[in-house]
């Protein structure tokens, strides 16, 4: 019987957590509905007990949670523009799915759920860096949906004594992030395009900034959050990031060096629902779970470009 459940196990972050758990010799179950997850991401995870299923269906949640001790809930439709185009789908797969999962987790006697929160919860409040005690100010339907999931986590900790921990991720990037969708994250899109000699598009003036966080840091934070004492972390929300921000123009220039791309980017209108700047204060995660980044941004970027370079022919 598996000890850990990873939802969204065929997605970028889910498969990365599952892979590390398996590497440590843990027993893992994964679930994915393949809306954004990829079967190819399951290669190398054959030791995982995999269920194809949709968390918007309570029966799938019950099956997934049976016998599990700890859940890493990564499944979501992780895109701001996708939520602007289809807020109902985002609500179904981020909010309803999360509630169904929590209900099933409680019924199955799961001990702890670690939730993939989003820095989009902070919205465009001018205060930087973002600290967890700032009032949330979600702008996009996506941000609202991810924040609702957080609130459900906290409510289940308070009301039902299910241990829940929220990690608010800041712009995660790295190997296995899907670069093929219009809704893909900017780093994946730029790596794929620039390695293929295609011109990337920057929405806005390129001076918007993000706290880009290499995937290994996020996996590390999840494992720490799973192990930390309940009295310290249950019901808590903490940033998961690096504590440095970088603009899209700077990213473009760094990627130009790493990929050998010679041209300029094209600039287009800013995207609806976009925020301007995002930067995390990561002190709380340090205090609560002992988190600090294990791979810095330049190293993460190098590893990422190398991965896309190797995989370009398969994408
Ligand atoms: C990202 C995540 C979201 C996460 C949030 C907070 C993705 C797809 N989205 O949202 O799940 O909750 O961070 O951590 O990973 N841009 C371009 N050109 C492009 C694509 C994007 O200029 O081709 C710009 C966007 O307009 C935006 C910035 O790059 O200003 C980042 O966009 P994106 O990678 O989609 O991430 P977020 O919207 O910040």
Observed structural traits:
single chain; 315 residues; alpha/beta; Rossmann fold; seven-stranded parallel beta sheet; two-stranded parallel ribbon; 11 helices; globular; binds uridine-diphosphate-N-acetylglucosamine
Quick synopsis:
The chain starts with a strand and ends with a helix. It has helices at residues 12-23, 58-65, 80-85, 87-108, 141-160, 186-195, 215-227, 230-233, 248-259, 283-289, 297-311, and strands at 4-7, 28-32, 49-52, 70-73, 112-118, 163-169, 172-173, 201-203, 209-210, 213-214, 236-240, 246-247, 266-268.
Topology:
Blueprint lengths: L3 E4 L4 H12 L4 E5 L16 E4 L5 H8 L4 E4 L6 H6 L1 H22 L3 E7 L22 H20 L2 E7 L2 E2 L12 H10 L5 E3 L5 E2 L2 E2 H13 L2 H4 L2 E5 L5 E2 H12 L6 E3 L14 H7 L7 H15 L4
Parallel strand pairs: 1-2, 1-4, 2-3, 4-5, 5-6, 6-11, 7-10, 8-13
Antiparallel strand pairs: 9-12
The structure holds uridine-diphosphate-N-acetylglucosamine (UD1).
The site of uridine-diphosphate-N-acetylglucosamine has 21 residues, from helix 6 and strand 8.
